[in-house]
Automatic annotation (TrEMBL):
Organism ancestry: Eukaryota, Viridiplantae, Streptophyta, Embryophyta, Tracheophyta
Positions of the Oxidoreductase N-terminal domain: 6-110
Record's protein name: OLC1v1025614C1
Domain Alcohol dehydrogenase-like C-terminal: from-to ranges: 164-287
Pfam families cross-referenced by the UniProt entry: ADH_N_2, ADH_zinc_N
Entry keyword set: Oxidoreductase
Coiled-coil annotated spans: none
A Gene Ontology molecular function term of the record: oxidoreductase activity, acting on the CH-CH group of donors, NAD or NADP as acceptor
Gene3D superfamilies: Medium-chain alcohol dehydrogenases, catalytic domain, NAD(P)-binding Rossmann-like Domain
UniProt source species: Oldenlandia corymbosa var. corymbosa
Amino acid sequence: MEVENKQIIFKGYIEGPPKETDMEFKVGKKIKLEAPKGSGAFLVKNLYLSCDPYMRGRMRDFHGSYIPPFTPGSVIEGFGVSKVLDSDNPKFKPGDLVSGLTGWEEYSLIYRTEQLRLIEPNDIPLSYYLGLLGMPGFTAYAGFYEVCAPRKGDYIFVSAASGAVGQLVGQLGKLHGCYVVGSAGSSKKVDLLKTKLGFDEAFNYKEEKDLDAALKRYFPEGIDIYFDNVGGDMLDAALLNMRIHGRIAVCGMVSQHSTSNPQGTQNLFSLITKRITMKGFLQSDYLHLYPRFLEDVISLYKQGKIVYIEDMNEGLESAPAAFVGLFAGNNVGKQVIRVAAL
């Protein structure tokens, strides 16, 4: 059987913020719904696709990162949840549900299986394997427990706190007995942080003319842990407000993703005077912890001790606009594209 395969194509390397026109929605050539014999590959039907800020880095002609750039004229790649239709790989059989890197298209032939995981059916939404139980959730878990080294009673600040990573960091902080404040870019997001996600306080950074003064208002005794998702001016302000022996987990720099000339950080002298530990990390550094993460977070979710917010767009054709919207703060929670029903 041959079917049409709708796809999102990356048109070419970019400078500045991503635009919808940097991508093209097209109907690819018809494909057979089978995995080639002897290939070791398997064919999947993509159900959900993830929009993540790191993908902006793959739109540059830069080969010195931890993940290579996209290939112009080819299908965009990202994390997805998929159903196996046909397989030439003994580890995966038709009907299996998997999460991992796939194409932004209806059907993908997958050869690389590193970091590809089988999903055991349960009563948790499948899309959560792109957020709460996927790369962002594991980033939050590993970053919080391994990089931040939290102690009960710590004062924690989380930027981009309503996003895919930040919302879980804040909830883990509260469960650990910490005081947690988050920043976000709208009054709606601030309200969600305080009413649904359980943050002690939250503020709209767009309404603050002086970020240093804002942090002093919310942390008059200083910050023990800053979980940094944005970099830029917020990181500079946080450095001034850290307590002695504070820890900064540098998870993302979304404020710098859309510029070819990232701004410098001015307040690094605070690292010395306050003996601050500042560490960048990738979730892939801690893959040995993934089974524990899955067990812990599934248990907390089923007990109702944590919640997760998604922003779901319908249809593959909505993917470019959804991805571009990440950089304008249009999404509320984890941005996901529903491509097809199970």
